[in-house]
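ugh ok fine here u go
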Amino acid sequence: IGDEIPVMLTSSDLSGLGVVSFEFTVTYDASVVTATGINTSETISGASGWNIQVNTDTPGEISVASLGASELTGSGDFIELVFEVASEPGYTDLSSTNFTFNSGIPSANVTNGSITINACPEVAIEIPDIDATSLNTGEEIHVMIASSDITDLGVVSFEFTLTYNPELLTAVGINTDGTISGADGWTATANTETPGIINVGGSGSGELTGSGDFIEIIFTKDYDYGESDLISTSWLFNDGCPTANVTNGAILLPVELTSFTGTTKENNITLQWATATEVNNKGFELFRNGEEITFINGYGTSADERVYSFIDKNLSQGKYNYQLVQVDFDGSNRQVGEIEVIMNNIPKKYSLKQNYPNPFSKGSGGNTSTKIEYSLPEESFVNITIYDMLGKKIAQLVSEKKAAGNYVIDFNAGNLSNGIYLYKMTSNNFTLVKKMILLK
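structure:
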């Protein structure tokens, strides 16, 4: 608003046509622009000895009249009209139906024009996807937000809100060193008091310039598995101009293993595991008593539940320890599960053993898990359910018909709070409830 718009009127060659005067009126939309005057410098009408009068008193009109002591000559830039922007965005026709040279000779064939005022320019903001699979719990995750070129866009302040998953991450602050927002005379601040939200704002004594790294947001990794979207829907430059077109991002964490179980039947042990999410998962190495026995391909990156199984056949009676190792496409690997399966005779009675370890907490491998063993003397339908102390159902571990045998469940409680939980087994006329204690 208020910026000048010069509009140069041009003409064909006037030489030898005897032009010693001219007059015209140009009409326009006064809600879009305002006529403020003319400029004749270096134009045909600015010839020596010519006197020009201009009238802008009537909104929507500019009238010009001129008389000279000599004939006008030449072609090209004839006279420049000057307007100011009254509103944006906007559009107005520029029309003249009474352009007159002398008393009408030569005649004027006028091609009318227009002024288009675009809306505020747009700045592209990109929040990247970050692969944090190689980082340990407690380590920092640096997210560099980038922008397109903001030079000459008059940016003297900015503010935005970024949301994330507080169960996986904690926002701890910002870094402006070496970034656009770290310009001399600028100060940026961040508010991280509300879990899941970081509010950032900045202002300075001069306009920001450049493109690329705009500002860096710093998080800590609180949980080993999952994916957190990074979303900003309220990015504001100045009072709204220029506008911001934001591409949101995410922080990707490794494979989230939700269960790892082993069941016996005859001389075989069936191993089954499930994931809630996967990131760059090439697959799983399965070890028995420290020796790799198979490799199972993964699903790469997936936000859907995936279920895997393997039958370890022709085993003798005894105890078998199985380790599950997840392998990324870059070759890095980490153990995500471990269970012990006992191959023995069919049990004589129903039983539900105390979970182990108990109490249990997050170990060095990052898994907050405990093992639950139970036995069935005959084929029967079995339910094993986790409850909190108020009786609210937390997780359903088993709900299906099982063959007679001994079973081990690996229960991952990574998303639960500290406290005492109950696990209950029902099968036929057998019911038993036990307590488990989770520490973090």
